Amino acid sequence: MVCRDEHGRILVHRRSEQLSRFPRFYEAVVGGAVDVGESCEQAAARELAEELGVRVLSRLLLTFLDRGGLSPHWLGLHQALVQAPWSLVPLRSPGMAG
Predict the structure, then answer these.
(1) Mean pLDDT, range 34-53, rounded to an integer
(2) Which residue in 23, 75, 66 sits closest to 44, CA to CA?
(3) pLDDT at position 31, please?
(4) Residues 6 or more apart in contact with residue 32 via CB below 8 angstroms
(5) What pLDDT was estimated at residue 52?
(6) Is the dihedral of CA 27, 6, 63, 74 positive or negative?
(7) Is 44 in a helix, a strand, or coil?
């Protein structure tokens, strides 16, 4: 899921350093797997609540079949409008002081 604010800015967040895959990397999406018996829309709402602590509706933008990895699987891209307030920290270019 891509999260945007009312100005169209995309939320970029840093992955936890405790994660086994890609710790401390930046991401522009929030997501996870669909549970058994759950719709894609329900999964998107659940993941948004779990990962960001917000409850908003999302809109499905597209679905596609990913043939990479261990086996083919369907992916869906959602977009959510997430209202302020946010504790935003502007990104700095590498090498900038501060």
Answers:
(1) 89
(2) 75
(3) 85
(4) 43, 46, 47, 50, 51
(5) 82
(6) positive
(7) helix
What gap in Å lies between CA 49 and CA 58, rounded to an integer?
Answer: 12
Report in angstroms the alpha-carbon separations of 54 from 19, 85, 86: 21, 11, 11
Is the pTM value of this prediction over 0.85? no
What is the Cα–Cα distance from 55 to 58, expressed in whole angstroms? 10
Structure tokens at 6: 């009312």
Token code pair at residue 29: 């999406």
Residue type, 84: A
Half-sphere exposure of 2 (CA within 13 A, CB side): 11
| Confidence at residue 95, expressed as pLDDT on a 0 to 100 scale | 47
Return the amino acid letter for 89: V
The closest alpha carbon to 32, from 59, 17, 52, belongs to: 52
Say whether 51 sits in a helix, a strand or coil.
helix
